[in-house]
Design a protein that fits this description.
Low-confidence stretches: none
Distance between the termini: 40 Å
Structural class: mainly alpha
Shape: globular
Number of strands: 0
Strand content: under 5%
Largest sheet: none
Number of domains: 2
Mean pLDDT: 81
Length: 250
């Protein structure tokens, strides 16, 4: 037990140093635990949550397939244009898009998708992008909390319980919406002076051609239905008696 704690703390320390890739650290730590017989191999294999790993892997594949089409960039640009260049509307549009994507994609992927687009819109609006990025980072965590697949902890909880995709939405979505409203309102009030938009800047945003962000229309027509179908199946997975990982990998 003592050795296990030492290995665990050592692994965390190395990960915190950011000198070695955390995946390598985790795998090396797992190997050391087995080699030192701190835990039996059979017990270690039984402890692996294959449903969680399958769900994460499946959703990463779905995102990787749909991302090159440009659909996420199109969504963000259209959200910015629908705001008509009004500061509060811009914040709500970008924050809402981020939270919604985070509910069905992992948080890191969502932020990585949104940040370049946010810089593009901020440049067109001639405002500081940092407040927008900070808001997006925070609401991505809020949005991810709302669903079974939005956050790794939720996936782990689902794997250890009988909670369905719909159970997470019913119990967590209302709280997430409330948190989204409060956090977005407070942050907008805090950064309002940095988000003033000139009339000519609004015109630049409205002139952006969102359609040009679609890089592969044929691939878009093939992959977006897969993404939509996957999300719909998550709602019905319990009624169909299939695991979320099966939905994601199918």
């Amino acid at each position: 037990m003592t050795l296990a704690v030492i290995l665990f703390v050592a692994a965390l320390a190395v990960i915190a140093s950011e000198r070695v890739d955390r995946t390598k650290v985790a795998l090396i730590g797992a190997v050391l635990v087995l080699l030192t017989q701190t835990i039996e191999q059979e017990v270690a294999i039984e402890a692996v949550d294959w449903n969680t790993l399958g769900l994460l892997a499946g959703m990463m594949i779905v995102v990787r397939v749909t991302e090159p089409t440009g659909i996420y960039t199109w969504i963000a640009i259209r959200a910015g244009q629908l705001s008509n260049g009004r500061p509060l509307a811009v914040v709500v549009a970008l924050a809402g898009t981020t939270a919604l994507l985070s509910a069905f994609l992992d948080n890191l992927t969502t932020v990585l998708l949104m940040v370049p687009i946010t810089f593009l819109l901020a440049d067109a609006l001639d405002i500081d992008p940092i407040p927008l990025v900070i808001i997006e980072i925070l609401v991505s965590n809020i949005g991810g909390t709302a669903t079974l697949i939005g956050d790794p902890p939720n996936i782990l909880i689902a794997g250890s319980t009988d909670l369905s995709f719909l159970d997470f939405i019913v119990n967590l979505a209302p709280i997430s919406v409330l948190a989204f409203v409060v956090v977005t309102a407070l942050l907008y009030r805090w950064y309002r002076s940095q988000l003033q938009i000139a009339p000519e800047a609004r015109e630049r945003v409205m002139s952006l051609d969102a359609a040009r962000s679609i890089e592969d229309m044929a691939e878009l027509k093939r992959t977006v239905p897969i993404l939509v179908g996957t999300v719909l199946l998550f709602f019905a997975h319990q009624a169909l008696h299939i695991e979320p990982a099966t939905v994601a990998l199918t």
